[in-house]
Amino acid sequence: MPPDLADTLYDASLYAGLTVLLALLSLPAPPPRRRGSLAMAAFALAMLAGLWLLHAFGAGIDNRTLHDILREALLALLAVAVLRSVLHFVVHVVLARFAIPSIVGDVLLGLSLIAYALVRLNAVGVNVAGIVTTSAVITGAIAFSAQEVLGALWAGLALQADRTIRLGDWIRHDGRLGQITSIRWRTTTVRTRNNELIVIPNVQLIKDKVNIVARPDAAERTLREVPFFVAYEHAPSRVVATVNEALQRAEVPNVAPQPATQCLCMRFEDHRIAYNVFYPVVDVGRGRETDSEMLAHVFAALQRAGMRIPMPQRDVFLHQEAADEARHRQVDERARALAAIGLFAPLTDAERRALASEVHPCLYARGDVLFRKGDPADSLFVLSRGRLAIVDEDARGLRQPLAAIEAPGYVGEMGLLTGQPRAATVIADGEVQCFRLDKAGFDAILRNRPGIVEALSQALARRQEENDATRQAQGQRAPGDAERGRAREIVRRIRQFFALGG
């Protein structure tokens, strides 16, 4: 016969009090570790209250079977709350530093509930052992039905016990890349980069090949590779050097500083050479976006170097007149861009056209560094599209914004005309189209008409005074009296740099 309900109430009160005590002991722990303790304590108290109500008003229930079912249901729910509270406190609070897999707690909870069920069945007079041992059919059915469940259970235990895969890992399984969001006793859930949830049976993960692409706490960064192609007319050594130099200077979000980004020649194909860029990624989940950024920088670097990305081979016949007309139109466009720059106002139209034929088009992607403070210089950049950010950079890499240049504009004039090192760092703020003018392109004009040196020096002096005013407004050093008459010093530097004499 089952024990009296009053005795059961006494035991239930002790167990419910245990859940409350464990919840209070869990309060000093971090929020993730104490999560659920208060809820289980409240649930246990609610089940205890249900038992008290059944004790107080259960006499009015004429059906004894219904009374027993209600009592056992309340006791079973109370047992679930107590067992979960105890296991949660032991695994997530007392033994938290050992990082016990969550599946261990789930298995222990299941075994504890089975033990509780056997005890309660025995308490109400049901001989479970006798029923199972006297029925070979039931025993065989249970063993057969439990085979798959036990296999999934052992697979889940194996995955978490040896920490083959962990929460937060990026894995590639069956050709799909995703991040592990949960590992249960039977299945593992993976979220792909398209925000799709894939539920994979643990048995399948044990049997199949799984690539662990990245781990959040790993010391070494995952390397991603981005392929691109260049025509045969450009030497691989030059292509590799050009791309490596451009990417080392570029500032691309989500790319780790170490190990260094590297471009390698991979193979020769029918009408092109294949290259790969290998770079360390910070967040694998944003890998596709970073691949796009890297390709944009590679494209800009190849364009600046005049390297051609091959297309399918076709025989195209152009009339020489059409080609000449296209070149003239291109020179006219560049000459108009130079005419909009105050520095070149002293030049004649013919001289500006001569300069326009000497400039080199340069495309930059966001984050590309045109030059850094202290770099040697002998060129000027004419901005025809986009925006440039000018910053002051110290030896530790700390930066302070100085100015921003919108198209049309120019930067690096002191490097072109005097050859002095760069005074600031210039970075592309978005996609930028520039024309680079080197010293060689300006040399012939100054030798033919050295008189324009005075006019150029005046323009440079005004630009320097504007830069000094910007620095003064930002609390930096103000221009001194000796700098007011800097035009004469600029003239001397220009003549010395271009060896004009006089």
Write the layout of secondary structure elements.
Elements lengths: L4 H22 L4 H4 L2 H21 L6 H31 L7 H22 L4 H6 L2 H26 L8 E4 L2 E8 L3 E6 L4 E5 H6 L3 E4 L7 E9 L5 H14 L12 E7 L4 E9 L5 H18 L15 H20 L9 H8 L3 E5 L4 E3 L7 E7 L1 E7 L5 E8 L2 E3 L1 H6 L6 E4 L3 E7 H10 L3 H22 L12 H12 L5
Helix pairs in contact: 1-3, 1-4, 3-4, 4-5, 5-7, 9-10, 11-12, 15-16
Please name the defining characteristics of this protein:
single chain, 502 residues, alpha+beta, SH3 type barrels, Alpha-Beta Plaits, four-stranded antiparallel sheet
Q: Nutshell version of this structure?
A:
This protein is 49% helix and 19% strand. It contains 16 helices and 16 strands.
Contiguous helical run count: 16
CATH architecture tag of the largest domain: Sandwich
| Terminal-residue CA separation | 122 Å
As for the number of domains, it is 4
- Going by CATH, the homologous superfamily of the largest domain would be Jelly Rolls
In what range is the share of β-strand residues?
A: 15-25%
If strands are numbered along the chain, what order do they take across the biggest sheet?
Answer: 4-3-2-1-5
What level of helicity do the residues show?
A: 40-55%
Radius of gyration from CA coordinates: 38 Å
Number of strands: 16
Unreliable runs, pLDDT <50, ≥5 residues?
Answer: 478-484
Given this structure, which CATH class of the largest domain is correct?
Mainly Beta
